[in-house]
Structure formats: structure tokens, C-alpha cells
Design goal:
Length: 132
């Protein structure tokens, strides 16, 4: 999210065809899930000086189609989701892993955006701005 906490940065995923949060899979060099989330956010946003908010924001379990083909290729992913804040005047840079990358207001998320992203945005907002 942006430093004044009015917008969230979403990436248009080329395979899924939906606007999603930045993220990905753990790599051998990641020493924690938090480190993996930070690395993925930096790689996919092009913003170097991000801050990962303390504590897990949300857990999400969902089915994914990992290979073309039969229903047997459906697996479940567990996303460990963190809220991440960009520094002032951050300019995101789209990576090769994205079709588009944009800031969106909390209350005007783009379509298509799935329920998982909407729930994450609501959880991050509650975590960072509990009085709202």
C-alpha cells in the first residue's frame, strides 16, 4: 500500500488474468516467509525500500490449476499474506511477471479481482487503520 494508506498496488497476472497482490513462492535463499514476501514484493513492484508490517495479515487457502489438463492437476496453495508499505513518492515498475501494475483506491478495486484480494485488502486496512 502507499504510505498514506489510501491505495493498494496490484499486478495484472498474465496467466490468471486477474488483478492480484504481489507475491510468489519461497526460494532457497529466503530465511523466512516474511523475507520471501518482501523479496517478491520488491521484485514485482520495482520498489526497493518497502516495509513489511509486523505480523501475518491473512492466510488464504485456494485451489490452483498448476498444469494444463485434468482436474487431477488441481492443487491447493496456502498464501501467507503480509501488509507491505511503500515509501513516499514510490514509482512502481512493472516486471516481466506482470501485464500491468497500478495503484488502486481501497474502495475502488479493479475487475476482475477475486475474493481473496478483496479480503486481503480489508484485512490490511483493519490491521493498519483499526479505527476505520
Amino acid at each position: 500500500m502507499d504510505p498514506v494508506r489510501e491505495r493498494v498496488l496490484l499486478t495484472l497476472h498474465p496467466t490468471v488474468g486477474r488483478w492480484l497482490q504481489t507475491g510468489g513462492h519461497c526460494e532457497p535463499a529466503d530465511v523466512s516467509l516474511r523475507d520471501a514476501a518482501s523479496r517478491e514484493a520488491r521484485e514485482e513492484s520495482g520498489i526497493a525500500d518497502i516495509s513489511v508490517v509486523a505480523g501475518i495479515t491473512r492466510l488464504d487457502r485456494h485451489a490452483v490449476l498448476c498444469r494444463e489438463g485434468s482436474a487431477s492437476s488441481r492443487l491447493h496453495h496456502l498464501d501467507v499474506q503480509y501488509a507491505i508499505v511503500a515509501p513516499p513518492d514510490s514509482v512502481p515498475v512493472r516486471s516481466s511477471e506482470s501485464v500491468d501494475l497500478r495503484w488502486w483506491p481501497w474502495d475502488a478495486l479493479p475487475e476482475p479481482t477475486d475474493a481473496s484480494v478483496r479480503l486481503l485488502v480489508a484485512a490490511a486496512r483493519a490491521q493498519l487503520m483499526p479505527s476505520r
